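Please fill in the sequence for the structure shown.

STRUCTURE ENCODING:
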């Protein structure tokens, strides 16, 4: 088992775009195993940071139930609602706000769920993207194996370490997606000895397919909605 210091050094290759480390990873006989550990480690670090940030944000924020109570009382005191209640005395906002309170209360565990799910989401994204990028790179003349592709693209997950800033309440990281794509580009170029443009297109195939799928799903959902409206 590799040391944590070694795995953190690998993860910083994606954060600082260290091309030498990408090349070393290509020739690493344990590239797939180390890549798996790097992605998992980054996911754990980001998940824990997000959890701590959510806890601190909750402590710094007012009680959600108190906010809902204030909103309900404010609405009930408006002239419009008073007149509406005079016309229909059965109108009561209590059921609506009780249900809203239950929804808000159910989100209290979202931070913990997110922290636990983050490593698995990162690992799933890495495997899916790596497989698609490998096929694209090979079709463009790449020479690397699937293990080399996954081992090198795993280092790109180090870009997600920027999300550690979430440990500060209400802070958000920007640029992780772009930095991650650049890291994937470097990883594919190192793993497959591709030219700059071929590595560029291999790195973009996955996101392009995802965008097309989202467009198709959006168009399908819109078509279903239009058909349902016409049916009514």
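FILLED IN BY: designer on duty
SEQUENCE:
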């Amino acid at each position: 088992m590799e040391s944590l210091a070694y795995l953190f050094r690998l993860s910083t290759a994606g954060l600082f775009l260290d091309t030498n480390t990408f090349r070393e990873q290509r020739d690493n006989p344990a590239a797939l195993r180390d890549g798996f550990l790097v992605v998992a480690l980054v996911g754990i670090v980001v998940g824990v940071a997000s959890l701590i940030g959510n806890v601190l944000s909750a402590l710094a924020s007012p009680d959600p139930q108190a906010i809902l109570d204030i909103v309900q009382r404010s609405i009930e005191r408006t002239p419009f609602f008073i007149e509406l209640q005079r016309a229909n005395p059965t109108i009561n906002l209590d059921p609506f706000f009780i249900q809203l309170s239950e929804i808000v209360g159910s989100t209290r565990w979202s931070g913990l769920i997110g922290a636990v799910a983050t490593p698995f989401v990162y690992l799933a994204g890495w495997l899916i993207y790596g497989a698609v990028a490998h096929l694209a790179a090979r079709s463009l003349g790449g020479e690397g194996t699937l293990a080399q592709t996954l081992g090198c693209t795993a280092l790109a997950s180090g870009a997600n370490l920027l999300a550690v800033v979430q440990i500060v309440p209400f802070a958000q990281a920007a640029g992780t997606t772009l930095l991650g794509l650049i890291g994937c580009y470097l990883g594919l170029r190192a793993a497959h000895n591709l030219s700059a443009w071929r590595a560029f297109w291999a790195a973009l195939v996955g996101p392009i397919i995802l965008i097309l799928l989202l467009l198709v799903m959006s168009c399908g959902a819109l078509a279903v909605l239009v058909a349902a409206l016409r049916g009514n």
